[in-house]
Design a protein that fits this description.
Length: about 210
Amino acid sequence: MRFARHARICHGPLDAAPVAGMLLLLMVLMMLGSLVYTPGVLVDLTQPVTAATSNAVIAVTASNVVFAQKSYKAEEMGQLRADMKALPGNARYQVKMEPGADASLGRQVSNLFQIALPEGKNMAGTDNATVVVAVNFRGQCFYQNRLVQDAELESELAGRLKIAARDSRKLTMILLLDKAAENEVQARLFELARRAGITEVLLAERPPMFGGRP
């Protein structure tokens, strides 16, 4: 049994009305997206603060993770994170995959550095031009999806400030700071931004889920 087909292949010119409507909708979404504020707390930079830095290597082998002459199994990643946080100074960490290293174990170590923003209901925002800097729980800075040292970050921020100044706009740094980061890490980033010429920082927060807890 055969049924009559009503759909036909279009051989004529493409109707421009749906395409124009979709492009108009995308333009409206882009314009509205630029008006959405990043939730967080605005901070005016004041007194300079300095902090020490150090280096540390995390070696991933075939069966465990070695850090500070201690060995950790896969189920001990929580203890590894606690030991890294207890290390004095703003350590810069490097994950080193040894020959034959367990890839899944390496992913667990990498997950320790995911940035978890604090939860808050402060919906403060800014109309200024913005530049985003992410910082993990031990003070490693990320700019434009790459790990940067303080000197490079300061140079990048100063360059962005000059671009904003040419357009007669003020520049605000949005700081995606892990909630487990030490206060001295935050102070170090404030001082770095101040040296670059930035006078306003927005500490980003994660909006509460489901309206927050009672």
